[in-house]
Amino acid sequence: MRMVADVIVVGAGVVGLTAAVRLQERGARVTVLTADPPERLVSTVAAAVWYPTHTDADPRVLDWATVTYQEFRRQAGDGVPGVLLRRTRMLQRRAGDGLPWWAAAAGDVTVRDGTAPYARELRFVAPLAEMTTYLDWLRQRVVDGGGQVTHRRVDRLDDLFAEAPVVVNAAGLAAGALCGDPTVLPIRGQIVLVANPGLDESVRDEEHPDGTAYVHPRSRDVVLGGSYQPGRADLDPDPELRAGILRRCLALVPELAVAPVLGERIGLRPGREGGPRVEAENRPGGRLVHAYGHGGAGMTLSWGCADEVCALALAGR
Ligand SMILES: Cc1cc2nc3c(=O)[nH]c(=O)nc-3n(C[C@H](O)[C@H](O)[C@H](O)COP(=O)(O)OP(=O)(O)OC[C@H]3O[C@@H](n4cnc5c(N)ncnc54)[C@H](O)[C@@H]3O)c2cc1C
């Protein structure tokens, strides 16, 4: 069969599409395959606020987070659809020594004294992506760059070497089964959407004893969260979780009391023991580049990982 692409990217979530865009910028002919329509992806469910949730203080993660932070700030300045910047107050119950490891990636982070029960608060600007709009924009970029985004389920990654010499495994939660990695696991998340009563500042309490609490105003609604449930894979709304999210978020931002509830969303984060896997593997038919296991930080690490995927995929070209 004639090779019609230089690279096939399996996955049209935020990880696959950002990689596809970077590959095209380097001159590669790219085809993206997706088993699911956009509305079914966890990338669409995501609150999609820059913050390296549940990631380790690993230099690679810091590097990916830094590159992504800078890219989203640039895109916000350029008016890319769906990209917003939010002043953020991160409330901390314990006054640590100095700034957390990820602060080096987040531009200007300042510390203020907190009011009980908070010991202090960190203030910084966080990019946020309204993912329905943003994923549309990414898909369009791939198409405008001469690529294709095709609805097709892949059973075996190695079969794709008949169509392209390089394959990127960006299949999210399904990536582990596709390449035999048993350490991939679902991490269930539930969020509540309410009308925006005029808020423009994000507030988060990652150390709340009843579960994380975050309030992220978008252009038309506000995302309230959250839940982080490793190993739980059902997509049924959990009324107890929803009540807890509303209770914690209203305590954080009392103005939300008048905001009508618009709905809720549930998604399965693609978790992985040891964190994201971004590495290349030489297979008998070609080069396989893995890019999966981003857990609760796929948006936060996306552009940094995309650069690395691109370098691995095109090495030696
Ligand atoms: C409630 C919630 C809130 C979140 N908030 C944030 C946040 O604030 N910040 C942040 O950074 N992250 C957040 N996340 C995490 C984020 O959603 C994920 O890390 C990210 O979306 C993972 O992207 P992905 O591209 O790897 O996976 P996905 O979006 O799942 O995309 C996987 C792609 O692979 C395709 N695929 C799978 N199997 C096959 C196959 N066999 N053949 C072909 N295609 C296949 C799918 O169809 C899809 O196109 C949140 C998640 C949840 C659930």
From TrEMBL:
Keywords: FAD, Flavoprotein, Oxidoreductase. Its EC number is 1.4.3.3. SUPFAM superfamilies: FAD-linked reductases, C-terminal domain (SSF54373), Nucleotide-binding domain (SSF51971). It is an enzyme of class 1 (oxidoreductase). Residues 6-311 form the FAD dependent oxidoreductase domain. This is D-amino-acid oxidase. InterPro entries: D-amino_acid_oxidase_CS, DAO, FAD-dep_OxRdtase. Its cofactor is FAD. It comes from the Bacteria. It catalyses: a D-alpha-amino acid + O2 + H2O = a 2-oxocarboxylate + H2O2 + NH4(+).
